[in-house]
Amino acid sequence: METGPESDRRESSRHSRRESGRRSSEHRRLLAESDDAPPVPDPTWSITKVVIAVLVVIALMSAVIYYKQVALLSKALVKETAQHGTHGVIIFMAIYIVACVVFIPGALLTMSGAALFAHVFGFTRGMLIAFAAVFISAWIAAQILFLLGRYTCGTWLEKLRRRRPRVAAVDAAIRKDPITLIVLMRLSPVIPFSLLNFVLGGSSVRWVDFAVATLAIAPGTLGYVYVGAVTGEAISAEKSGLHNEMAELIKLVLMIVGALATLLVLGLITWRARTMLNERLAEEHVTHIRDLSVQPEEGEDRGFG
């Protein structure tokens, strides 16, 4: 049987490797168990819920006030537009921008504007004027909300992304292909226009990509404008034949396209977010295990050196 310093060193080395392997296995077991452990309450997430709730309440209150006042506003705009055409359009655009910035839904205002412009300028010209006014106003309002979100909530959302891997994964999924996903979001009627602009401002999406993708509001805007213009012409000319049938068809097409876009965008975001989240968690897991497995060995080297 071999004895002496050489044998002691070999025995110490074997003991060190066994102990290091045992500790690494224990760390892996604890790390795996930690995935099933109940989550620790995160104060940041509580703040997130409060902010979302406040925004929803503001949107609902604004909608109630808006729907009560839209009839009076439309009458005033019809009178102003009839007397001073250009001034009426500018006033409408200013009101539209402010309405979007304060989270008031713009669909009814879009159709009301198209109706009054068709009433004043005629169907074709009124529809074109309404489309240009709504499209430009909505695009400007989107940029304002994006910048507000970036400079008021950017830091807070960055902290949230660092603390919540799933939030970071969703943000990374949107950042990887921002134009495609934002375009699909624009086509979805389920996602509030103003809230989407504000939230994307706090994300890592570049402003250039956001501005380009916001052009995708054109199809939906045209559809709502057409429905409103048909309504305005029917009221002024008391005609309800082909145009009203076409309006119903446009409504149906918008509903179908919106529903498909909603399902598609939710599916894409979910798939990409899940993929990136799994990749990120796997990388963090490997890094953490590597660090844990290296630390005991360094301790053993210092102890036996």
How would you characterize the overall build of this protein?
- The structure is a single chain.
- The protein is mainly α and 305 residues long.
- Helices cover 88% and strands 0% of the residues.
- It has one domain (43-296).
- The chain has 11 helices and no strands.
What is the radius of gyration computed over CA atoms, rounded to a whole number of angstroms? 29 Å
Structural class: mainly alpha
The tally of domains stands at: 1
In whole angstroms, the N-to-C terminal distance is 25 Å
- Number of distinct helices: 11
Low-confidence stretches: 30-42, 297-305
The portion of residues forming beta strands comes to under 5%
Helix fraction, binned, reads over 70%
Instruction: Find the count of extended strands (DSSP E, 2+ residues).
Output: 0
Please give the largest β-sheet. Answer: none
Task: Tell me, rounded to a whole number, the average pLDDT.
Answer: 70
The gross shape turns out to be elongated
H and E string: HHHHHHHHHHH
Describe the protein's topology.
Blueprint: H1 5-36, H2 43-83, H3 85-101, H4 107-121, H5 123-163, H6 165-176, H7 178-187, H8 193-202, H9 207-213, H10 218-237, H11 242-304
